[in-house]
Amino acid sequence: MPDMTTARTLWFAFIVSQLVFLVVVNVGLTDPPELDWAVVGPLAAVAMFEGVFGLVGVPAVFRKQPAQSAWIIRWAFFEAMTITGLVTAFVGAPLALFYGLFGLSLVCLALTRPTADAFTEWEMRRLQ
Predict the structure, then answer these.
(1) CB under 8 Å to 112, separation ≥6 — which residues?
(2) Cα angle at 102 between 98 and 105, to 5 degrees?
(3) Residue 92 has what pLDDT?
(4) Cα–Cα distance, 30 to 124 (Å, whole number)
(5) Are the C-beta atoms of 63 and 125 separated by less than 8 Å?
(6) HSE value, Cβ hemisphere, 13 Å, CA-based, for 32
(7) Where are the domains of the chain?
């Protein structure tokens, strides 16, 4: 059974960082600029790509990496989704877009919660 302390600590840190971004948007965004869909649209598409790649792409592309490394990369993509949402809020997107990306990121993090069984399964596939 792998030691999950480091992975769970890092996973928790990624969740806490999401909450920091939530505070930044709610406290720091007092007068949002005018909406520019030419900027916001592509950023929203990038954010969705980050989430999908974290869920589907990382297991395919990084399948030969150790579980902990691959999962940290996954969590970084989910965090990037929220950071991109943060940027969209500061360039004038409706806050609903940020909150949606924030929520999706938390769901993705919840779906990839580190467990000993999941890490063992990843390692067994990696070593085949």
Answers:
(1) 11, 54, 55, 71, 74, 75, 78
(2) 140
(3) 86
(4) 50
(5) yes
(6) 18
(7) 39-126
Which helix (H) or strand (E) element contains residue 20?
A: helix 5-28
Distance CA(3)–CA(95), nearest Å, equals: 39
Report, as ranges of residue numbers, the positions in the chain whose pLDDT lies below 70.
1-2
Q: Which two tokens stand for residue 87?
A: 């940027």
**Residue 110 half-sphere exposure, CB side, CA atoms within 13 Å?**
6
Query: Whole-model pTM above 0.85?
Result: yes
Sequential DSSP letters for 47-113: HHHHHHIIIIIHHHHTTTS-HHHHHHHHHHHHHHHHHHHHHHHHTT--HHHHHHHHHHHHHHHHHT-
Q: Name the 3-class secondary structure at 42.
A: helix
C-alpha–C-alpha distance, residues 18 and 20, integer Å: 5
pLDDT digits (tens, 9 = 90+) for 80-112: 999 999 999 988 888 999 999 999 999 999 999
Q: Which candidate, 54, 73, 64, places its Cα nearest to that of 10?
A: 73
CB distance 75 to 109 below 8 Å: yes
